[in-house]
Design brief:
337 residues, mainly alpha, two-stranded antiparallel sheet, elongated, disordered N terminus
């Protein structure tokens, strides 16, 4: 989506709920091997036995055991024999058959495999939704393998899926195996993760246009501007914004060469947007977000190479008017606070 004046904006973020169900159309089993199987455990279905679980097995132990088995990246066979699962219930070989009975049409292992498949497919689906540009660059199969590698190294440990991918950008940058255009993908992942964080940032009532104009100049000069918590500033090594917009709009775009880009990522209403910034605007906003006064923020800008005081002073009213309309400012507080 493009804003007036050629300023690049991003797209509204979709969702958010604590849990999400898998959607149709997601690529199934994007990895080879034993991590995900559509037809039961890779070893093949075993003979179903009658339920012979120990009668005094506590429910929480069974639940913890089941979680370790179905979330194991090696499949339920590896999960069954893992030390993590056995720390909750150590039933030896055939533990699955002792704890889970067969149905009319499925063995115990086939029944449990359904939950294992669903677990990984759902998490891969979430990562694909949160990192659509990374997925576009890599392609669905390779992105699926990257997602499983990430989930294996950083399994979900929270009740909320909102934090599932917090470490994904760093994983792409420094932990993942061989990746094409790694540095570019890491910058893209950082922007896409930041959009998720901004979407979930706390609410704060911004100043209205009338309130903004009513603040005396003296308060602006001596106080500290309280900024919206739904604002993040990013200094990137690649110009990713236009590429991300092209991917969203299904336009052809080549991966750009390395070049500095500064972005503001912010929430307005129920949507998250991106705006490209000059280095001066990035430095000014960064100083204000850090709690500096306007004079100190101006001084930080003046230290930039090539700073033009006349041009800077003339541009300030335009910048502040725009930022106020975007809801960046929530008030002006005393510098002593």
């Amino acid at each position: 989506m493009r804003a007036r004046g050629g300023r690049a904006r991003g797209e509204p973020a979709s969702r958010k709920a604590g849990l999400r169900l898998p959607r149709g159309g997601t690529e199934a089993a994007p990895v080879s091997g034993t991590a995900i199987s559509a037809a039961g455990d890779p070893a093949g279905p075993l003979r179903s036995l009658s339920r012979t679980a120990p009668p005094r097995a506590k429910l929480n132990a069974v639940e913890n055991w089941m979680q370790e088995v179905i979330t194991h990246p090696g499949g339920i066979g590896a999960g069954e024999s893992s030390s993590a699962a056995r720390s909750h219930m150590d039933l030896g070989a055939g533990a699955i058959e002792r704890l889970i009975g067969p149905s009319r049409n499925l063995t115990s292992r086939q029944r449990l495999q359904i939950y294992s498949n669903m677990y990984f497919w759902r998490l891969i689906d979430i990562l694909a939704e949160e990192y659509p540009t990374v997925r576009h660059v890599l392609g669905p199969p390779r992105f699926g393998r990257l997602a499983v590698a990430f989930l294996t190294a950083h399994p979900s440990r929270s009740y909320s899926l909102n934090v599932l991918s917090a470490g994904f950008p760093d994983f792409v940058r420094s932990e993942a195996g061989r990746l094409p255009r790694r540095a570019f993908l890491a910058d893209v992942a950082r922007v896409e993760r930041t959009m998720e964080e901004v979407f979930d940032a706390p609410d704060a009532r911004p100043l209205t246009t009338k309130e903004f104009r009513a603040i005396p100049m003296g308060r602006w000069a001596t106080g500290r501007i309280r900024m919206t918590p739904a604002l993040r500033l990013l200094a990137l090594d690649h110009p990713v914004d236009a590429f991300m917009a092209a991917v969203r709009e299904e336009r052809q775009a080549d991966v750009p060469r390395r070049r500095k880009e500064w972005l503001a990522v912010f929430r307005s209403g129920y949507s998250v947007w991106r705006a490209r910034l000059s280095e001066e605007r990035f430095t000014l906003l960064g100083a204000l977000v850090a709690g500096k006064s306007l004079p100190d923020a101006f001084e930080a800008c003046a230290a930039l190479r090539g700073f033009d005081e006349g041009r800077f002073t003339a541009a300030l009213p335009v910048w502040f008017k725009r930022w106020a309309s975007e809801g960046f400012f929530c008030g002006v507080e005393s510098a002593e606070k």
